[in-house]
From TrEMBL:
Protein name stated in the entry: Lipoprotein
Organism: Oryzomonas japonica
Domain of life according to the entry: Bacteria
PROSITE patterns: PROKAR_LIPOPROTEIN
Amino acid sequence: MMNKHILIGIFAVLTTLTAGCGSANFLVYKDAKHFYVTSDGATLKKVLCESGDINRILTDSRLPEAMQKDLHEGICSSNKVKERLLATLEDMTPEQRSALKLAFQANGYQINTIANC
């Protein structure tokens, strides 16, 4: 009986990890506000785009200029296409994702990295 519970627990953890690795989307937290970076809500627009934070984050990330442009447009454009932004995020190398995460953190954000494997 105990082994059955352990196996169920292991299966649940593996399922969760596998599901989380399928997406490059991530949660962003700042000033008690949170949102997925691919969302198109007013909170994201205000906190990241209107404040100018996304410009500082992208500059601090030192990602290639074309990637910075794609990320900025993907996050802040009024004609946001979630799938295009997800594709940009998924095409990033682990080093680029790490640089982006560190740039968010350097600008006062916390990042949920569960979805970034």
